[in-house]
Design brief:
- The chain has one domain (about 1-160).
- It is about 55% helix and about 15% strand.
- The protein has helices at about 5-25, 50, 70-80, 105-160; strands at about 1-5, 30-35, 60-65, 85-90, 90-95, 95-100.
- It has a four-stranded parallel sheet with strand order 1-2-3-4, sandwiched between helices. A two-stranded antiparallel sheet has the order 5-6.
Length: about 160
């Protein structure tokens, strides 16, 4: 798992994309806080290359009033990325200062979003493992049943021969 804030979130996405390209799925996911999708004065030029290259789960956490990450533009950029989620936090700007809320309350919301997202990844992995385990156990039962049928047939043949 990688995470970063502002320019650090872009660095985390770059690193995650590079690792996954080289080694396959090397990470479970990446958290990008206050991702700078565009500059404050130019929403036309998007810094979205890292998002387009994403091939792993990601959580983008941004504040509603962030001047470098327009909500509609980020949501449009994330379209088609099934394992990518955006969370919007009220009462802060680019996570620099709280406005109208206590800073601790803002970060409680951020922590809850990250924890919930991480738990969903773990739960998803657990569900896949459980499904795979169940399939493996079913194969084992079937094989054991088939072996039992073969053994019964061999024992029946031995009994007739005697």
């Amino acid at each position: 798992m990688f995470s970063g804030r502002a320019m650090g979130s872009r660095a985390a996405l770059n690193m995650a994309n590079e690792l996954n390209a080289e080694d396959g799925p090397a990470l479970k996911g990446v958290v990008a806080m206050s991702f700078q999708l565009h500059s404050e004065d130019d929403k036309e030029k998007l810094n979205d290359d890292q998002i387009k290259a994403l091939a792993l789960p990601a959580l983008f956490i941004t504040t509603v009033n962030d001047k470098t990450c327009d909500k509609a533009l980020l949501e449009k950029t994330l379209q088609g990325k099934s394992a990518v989620k955006a969370e919007w936090v009220e009462g802060a700007e680019h996570f620099r200062k709280a406005s109208g809320r206590k800073e601790t309350d803002v970060f409680d919301d951020v922590n809850a979003a990250v924890l919930g997202w991480c738990e969903s990844l773990i739960d998803g992995d657990a569900a896949v493992q459980k499904k795979e385990k169940g399939a493996g156990e079913e194969k084992h039962r079937k094989r054991k049943s088939e072996d039992g049928s073969k053994n019964s047939a061999v024992e029946s043949k031995k009994a007739k021969d005697e």
